[in-house]
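Appendix B. One record, verbatim.
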Amino acid sequence: MAGTEAGASAPVCVLVGAPGSGKTSTGQALAALLGVAFRDTDGDIEAQAGKPIPEIFVDDGEAHFRTLEAAAVAAALASFDGVLALGGGAILAESTRAALAGHTVVYLSVELPDAVRRVGLGAGRPLLAINPRATLKHLLDQRRPLYTQVATVTVVTDGRTPRQVAEEIAAVLKDR
């Protein structure tokens, strides 16, 4: 795959998007369709830290979490060859945006009504703990240009099941 050294593995595709865009559910469905593994960098961070992400935010702060996140993304991009999902804020790090160059990055676009319906009141999502709807709107507005910047493909997820979105991504990947 372009952007990787000879012999190095790279993800089949990298999923990015806001909370509620369906990165995990779509990623799992896509990996099953393609017959490859699925990996979520949030899980990598929790395994490394030995605690859930909300506890990392409370105990160590968002800056520490973002440092762990950038390292987890860099490691996964260099070593994983399945479907990789990044946390919603991973693209905030300039180093992560640069590392995504040369990879097939699929931006799962979602509008506020669907995102709110999918994330509910933000349980387990530290950035959505206070006023989830307003915060989610702010995150969507703030991050959309960054998702668009790193994306090689944008797929709209509103009103669609993870399986439908995964089938569209699989078709796009097949055509590449």
